[in-house]
Every structure is written in C-alpha cells, then in structure tokens.
Amino acid sequence: MARQRYGKKSKRGVWIWIGIVVCVCVMLYAGSQIYMETKEDNLGDSTYSALKEKVFLSTTSETAAEGPKVWEPDISTLKEISGNAVAWICSEGTPIDYPVVQGADNTFYLTHLHDGTSNRVGAIFLDYRNAPDFSDQNSIVYGHHMKSGKMFAELEKYKEQSYYDGHRSLTLYTQDAAYRIELIAGYVVDGSINDLELNFGNGEEFCSFVEKIKRKSTFQSDTAVAGTDRIVTMVTCTYDFTNARYALIGKLVTL
C-alpha cells in the first residue's frame, strides 16, 4: 500500500513539474513577443522622427519682427529619401505627423516602414489605385491603429463630437501643393467590404455620397461640399466588430 501511495505521489509530482515548466515556457514566449513588439515600435518611432528632422524646413525667419518659425516638409527631399513617398500628412497637437507612401498594392506597407524596412508599425500609405497627386475625387489613405496611440490611432477619437470640435482639420503636403483637409464626416465601415469609390460618375452622385456619410457620421460638421470638390478618406482599424474600420473623410482646400 505504501508503494502504491508513493507511486501516485510520484506521478502527481511529475505532472506538477510539467505544468510549471509549461507555464514558464509560456511566460518566456509571451515576454519575448512583448519585447520584440516594443523593440519594433521604438525602431519605427525613431525612424520617423529621424526622417522628419531631414525633410522639415523653416519657412519664416526666427526674428520676432518676421513672426514665429513655421516648419513645413520639403516633399522633394522626402522623395529623394523615400522614392515611394507622395505626401506628408499632419494634425496639429496630435501624433499624426508622417510621410504618405504608395506601393504596388495595399499590403506591403502594412508591415514595412516608409523606407521598406520590415516592421509591424508599417507606414501611412495611399491606395495603390489612386493618382499619387491626390487628383482623384476620393483619395484613400490607410494607417495602423497602434496601441501606443501612434500612426492613425488618433482617428478613432473622432467618434466623439468634442474631439472633432477641437480638431476640425488636418494638413496635407504634396509635391505641387499644400492642402487643409476640412473634415466632413467619420463613420465605422466593414473592412471586409471594399466599397469605397475613388471617382464618381458625376457631381450629383458625389453629393449623394457625401449626404449619406454625413447621416452616418459620429460627429456633426458644417463643412459645405460641392460636386467639384475632392476628398480624402483616412482609414484605420477599430474594434466595434470583426474587420471594423473607422473612416474619416475631409475635403481638400488649397492653402
């Protein structure tokens, strides 16, 4: 009987040790994943910060008589550094301050930085079907919703009217022009259904689309839109349901 009890205890001890080993392995794996993700996030942040230092130029003098210093990106320099760059997008007072690139598809820059380096942070990128000069009636720009709040995570805050009230526009710089993106609407869409139009048949169809998205918008905007206007649709992940995306739409106004 003593031997039988000893055998049972021995087997129980083995299973306990196996459980401990498994738990340790899981913890080590989870820790390594967090470390690698943090490392990539930091690399992405430092890469974009370094790029900004290279492409932003002062457009006014530092002397008080001529006003404060204003910084704007030099898109020609940006394109020399990153051949697939087409623009720079920024939103004052937020983390959104990035180059916009364009690839041969809509998947490459989900996992690569602006310079092609493999990284989970990815890049802000223009739909490969769009004209690179934003001349289409609807230019679609994508970016990740990072837990750190970087890239396009800020867009989801437009689900609140108060956030829109404090951030009514973004700025877009292209090779040939600078634009203010005056926001019209923002709403949740199904990312598994690719139904965003790049161009509309006529002004009436375009205006009908604008009225539809205004009705679905998470905030109310008084920005007027004409049939000849051009818009930018900025898209990022949201977590309302599987494959949910938040789309923020604004019209281009030349500065």
Account of the protein in words:
It is built from 4 helices and 10 strands. The protein has 255 residues and is α+β, with helices and mostly antiparallel strands. It has 2 domains: 2-56; 73-254, Beta Barrel (Sortase, Chain: A). The protein starts with a helix and ends with a strand. The relative contact order is 0.12.
- What is the strand tally? 10
Counted up, domains total 2
- Assigned CATH superfamily of the largest domain: Sortase
Query: Uncertain segments of ≥5 residues (pLDDT<50)?
Result: none
- Describe the strand arrangement of the main beta sheet, using strand numbers: 3-4-5-6-9-10-8-7
Give the overall pLDDT as a whole number: 86
Main β-sheet description: 8 strands, mixed, barrel
